[in-house]
Specification:
Elements (H helix, E strand, L loop, with lengths): L7 E5 L15 H12 L3 E4 L11 H15 L5 E5 L5 H14 L3 E4 L10 H12 L7 E5 L1 H4 L5 H8 L6 E6 L4 H9 L7 E3 L5 H7 L3 E4 L2 H16 L3 H18 L6 H12 L15 H12 L8
Parallel strand pairs: 1-2, 1-8, 2-3, 3-4, 4-5, 5-6, 6-7, 7-8
Bound molecules: ligand SI3.
Organism: Eptatretus burgeri
Keywords: Carbohydrate metabolism, Cytoplasm, Lyase, Schiff base
Protein name: N-acetylneuraminate lyase
């Protein structure tokens, strides 16, 4: 794979599961084909929030990475893998494995049962894990809505300083664009930022994010690529029109963001690939919610080809 320089969008993939809750790697090849051929998406973020990584065993996470690397060979540009775990031992094991099998980069978020008391304690954790990742780029996964870590990304960046040689930026899944901007433009060195709130991706990119990583790029990838191309060509109103229609779609599902069970239903419906149920403790959408989601997707026709 190429030297890591993620641009554009990457899909935070879902983990296909069998009805009994086991992971289903048998459709990973078709999943890659769908992303590349139907959505024009050639980079992925594996085992993240959308991929229910924190609910998978380390063995399952390794198996998924290997399956995606195999299916993605010569077809995917970058495979970034989330290796976050509560146990630093597991986290190190996944870092080492990611390097050995050839992932493009690893992402780590903070443990959140025993939260680090200070940004320095968090950096110590990241540093210890990063030592196992060889030369792989290390991305800090800032997602306070899930991790409940109270520190701003810009504060974490200050604490990182030069302590993590392969530090390669933030996956920034937060609405606070002021904090994002401080990371990108006020840190003494330009910190790459991969924006993670799909509802306001356009603004994140306008502020200077290098790329975007999110769940909806699995099935709205081509629309988002079109929006970014309009942005690049300074057709701001046209780009904004697309962002607003995407926001309307997301709001028609939930005003606080789309969760994994809903996303798996939507992805299955649009792609025709069965993502299966989410893993416990998440619960599958019932029949009435599922038809509501299907109707919301049908009305996406206003966005034309998805
Ligand atoms: C909280 C959450 O799951 N956020 C998503 C978004 O892509 C989110 O699903 C989207 O903005 C729709 O609300 C991503 O930031 C998460 C992500 O990239 C991942 O799966 O790791």
């Amino acid at each position: 794979m190429d030297k890591f320089d993620l641009q554009g969008i990457a899909a935070a993939t879902f983990t296909p599961m069998k009805p009994n809750g086991d992971i289903n790697t048998s459709i990973v090849g078709e999943y890659v084909t769908y992303l590349v051929e139907n959505q024009g998406v050639t980079s992925i973020f594996l085992n993240g929030t959308s991929g229910e990584g924190m609910s998978l065993s380390t063995a399952e996470r390794k198996k998924l990475l290997e399956a995606w690397l195999c299916a993605g060979r010569n077809r995917l540009k970058y495979i970034i893998v989330n290796i976050s775990c509560s146990s630093i031992t597991d986290c190190k094991e996944l870092a080492k494995h990611a390097e050995q099998v050839g992932a493009s980069a690893v992402a780590i978020t903070s443990p959140s049962y025993f939260c680090p008391a200070t940004p320095d304690a968090l950096v110590d954790f990241l540093h210890a894990v990063s030592l196992e990742a060889g030369s792989l780029p290390i991305i800090y996964y800032h997602i306070p809505v899930m991790s409940h870590i109270p520190f701003l990304a810009s504060t974490i960046l200050e604490a990182i300083g030069n302590k993590i040689p392969n530090f390669a930026g933030f996956k920034f899944s937060d609405l606070n664009l002021f904090d994002a901007s401080l990371c990108m433009h006020n840190s003494g060195r330009r910190c790459p930022l991969y924006y993670g709130v799909d509802e306001q991706m356009l603004t994140g990119m306008l502020m200077g994010a290098q790329a975007a990583i999110g769940s909806t790029y699995n099935y709205l990838g081509s629309k988002n690529i079109e929006m970014l191309s309009l942005l690049q060509n300074e057709k701001f109103q046209d780009a904004l029109n697309i962002q607003i229609s995407i926001q309307k779609h997301i709001a028609s599902i939930s005003k606080t963001g789309i969760t994994v069970p809903e996303n798996k239903v939507i992805m299955s419906y649009i792609s025709g690939l069965d993502m299966g149920p989410p893993r416990s403790p998440l619960t599958a959408c019932g029949a009435s919610r599922t038809s509501q989601l299907h109707r919301a997707v049908d009305s996406l026709q206003s966005l034309s080809r998805i």
